Amino acid sequence: GMRRNLPHRWLQQPLETAFAGAPDAATLTVNLFGKSRYRKDLVKAVAMADLSHLDMAWMFRGLVPIDWIVEYLRLPPLDAGQDSWYARSEDLRTVVRHLDERSLRNLLFADHVHRIYHHDLVRMFDPADAAHIGRPRSWMDLHDRVARRNRFRYQTSGSGKPKRKMRLTDKQSALVGSSEDGLVFELATHEDQLWTWGTRMSNCILDYGHQMRSGHSWLGAVSDAQGRMVGNFEIRPGRRGIPTLVQLLGPSNRPLPAELRDQAAAYLRGHGVDVPRRYWGSSDD
């Protein structure tokens, strides 16, 4: 049968259903792509494809030519260490379906979708922006273009911006300061700071304003001894009241250089933050 023994995180409900009701590759192909797109070469590609590729191809169904889907499914499997996340590809489809065909091909054959881009794109994307983001070359490029439109909306709207700065708690205040390595750490207390940071670092930290206000996220910046901002981070309070590092990234959501990343993580750990082995930016993937 075609039912494969998969970690639950790989399959969302529609894909789970497609696999569960498929005794062979031909049936699975129909379940995933529909009868009108059935082709023998597609069946063969489905039968041999890496599971992550199947999820991605399914997201692009009906948006790109079947020849592209077949070509994509024949690609080698992703490396086991790559931090990819397709577990909610149907959500991401609401973003890509607004793009032109050339952009769709760029994304289909681009590097894996890092979970940061996936998560942020679903939250930030406004269909009204589709005509203004051009032709992205990769998922990172799409993320950066959408983030720029998000900052533009914030800058030009002039409404709904809270005027009062937040007051940091004692735990938050303990993180503000300098490390022995000369790094300077600060936490945001107002959306205008997030706008400035996002513009300087080409990221979408502005879009986390609600999480900051609700206390769901502590948002910070790291600067070097010369005052240059080198990274941003997100910390969440945690279920047991232990603040936990969620992401620590440099410009354009790229990983920090290893030495700098380790210095920043060590500072946060030394000030009561749980730094897990895996967080967004913990490796060079």
Any overview of this molecule?
This protein is elongated. By secondary structure, it is of the alpha+beta class. It contains 13 helices and five strands. The model is unreliable at 1-11 and 83-87 (pLDDT under 50). A five-stranded antiparallel beta sheet has the order 1-2-3-4-5, sandwiched between helices. Strand 4 (229-236) and strand 5 form a beta hairpin. 43% of the residues lie in helices and 9% in strands. Helix 2 (25-33) crosses helix 3.
* Main structural class: alpha+beta
Tell me the β content: 5-15%
Shape: elongated
In the predicted model, the low-confidence regions spanning at least 5 consecutive residues are 1-11, 83-87
Q: Summarize model confidence as the mean pLDDT.
A: 84
With strands numbered from the N-terminus, the spatial order across the biggest sheet is: 1-2-3-4-5
Notable features of this structure?
5 strands; 285 residues; alpha+beta; 13 helices; disordered N terminus; 43% helix
Q: What is the topology?
A:
Elements (H helix, E strand, L loop, with lengths): L12 H8 L4 H9 L6 H9 L2 H9 L6 H8 L15 H8 L4 H8 L6 H10 L14 H19 L12 H4 L3 E2 L5 E4 L3 H11 L7 H6 L3 E6 L5 E8 L7 E6 L8 H13 L15
Antiparallel strand pairs: 1-2, 2-3, 3-4, 4-5
Helix pairs in contact: 2-3, 3-5, 4-6, 8-9
